[in-house]
Amino acid sequence: ELDAKTLTADTLKAIEEKETALNAFVTVAEDAVPAEQLDLNNVLAGIPIAIKDNIITEGLRTTASSHILDNFVPVYESTVVQKLKEAQMTIIGKTNLDEFAMGGSTETSYFGTSKNPWDLTKIPGGSSGGSAAAVAGGEVVAALGSDTGGSIRQPASYTGIFGIKPTYGRVSRWGLIAFASSLDQIGVMTKRVKDAAQVLNVIAGPDDKDATTSQTKVPDYTQYLGQDIKGLRVAVPAEYMAEGINADVKAVVQSTIDMLAQNGAIIDTVNLPHTKYVLPTYYIIASSEASSNLQRFDGIRYGFRAPDVKSLEDVFVKTRSEGFGDEVKRRIMLGTFALSAGYYDAYFKKASQVRTMIKQDFDKIFAEHDVIVGPTAPTTAFGIGQQVSDPLTMYANDILTISANLAGIPAASVPAGLSEGMPVGLQVMANRFDEGSIFKVASFVEQQN
Ligand code: GLN
Description:
The chain has 449 residues and is an alpha/beta fold. Helices cover 35% and strands 14% of the residues.
């Protein structure tokens, strides 16, 4: 019989024991209690779940891992957390991220770096690195993340778990602290593919509070688990298996692709010719939107306010100077520049045009294929401190994940094997609103491993 109180207590104990090593959480909900009168028709009733700390939780501190919000306790609920509560899940705490989800390692967090449970000297990836470490380290079975350019998939890949970024518009972002609104999407990170399907069943769907959500019907994602893949049309972009992708990572991914072929999938090599433009396109668009979204953090209504201020301008300047970290400031400056009158056409407008071409690359492939597969990231997890002082090297890790956000398509990372003892993720992408095909492939790969 399900004893949710024991489960909650055991989870809190596991977190307490492991946090010194992992630093996966910014805030633990020490006084968490399971919902009353569990309805066992809710398959998730009484199960603890962790929430990335850029997702608003009513009454539970929400920081986006930034000094500027480190005292912020929201007075309203995000739609996703509202839905998890209605499904009677237990919100067990808030997980660490790169500040405002800007980064790929959690090293830009105001609360310190989370550690990779496979090797504590390595980063767990990011920006949803706390969620990844919490799941991979056995603190929780499920966590929510957010993905603007790979922040669910890349940490899932680095920590050997499953992570899915749904289609843009599939899950409400009401209560997600906005980074880049045309790219942001909330998704799920779990050890088991089936658990992610069940959580996505709960959080997907239209929301009056988020006009970008779609009315498209939400299927039961568990129906795709364990399905046959015979005849499945699989595209492998040559650009995703090219130079610059670690040879060992490619070998693990190739053996998974061979396994799919042996089981009746039809494999085709295809081209995504605009791949060489995705990094500059993404970093211009994401930074531009961030510079606009982050204007609201001014020290007036909520969050941190710098002490010893003498004028209103002082409040803004000092609060933002002291409240934001270096990476966030870098993005705000880059974005403000790209949007400014003299440069808008040359940068933001151009990037938007290239974005359309990137999206068309995908439309062409999905006219003839069910899924696209390849590596999630060019390497396995790297060492703490190894890349943090070199933004361009850090940005280059996103080369394989950001296209899905630019195109608005769903994409996931599923564990495919190991390279020198560290996990390698297989990325699976599908057409808009076809998360089902992703679950089909992911559950097949999971069964074989
Ligand atoms: N690493 C990417 C960035 O720094 C993606 C972040 C994300 O998806 N939130 O922008």
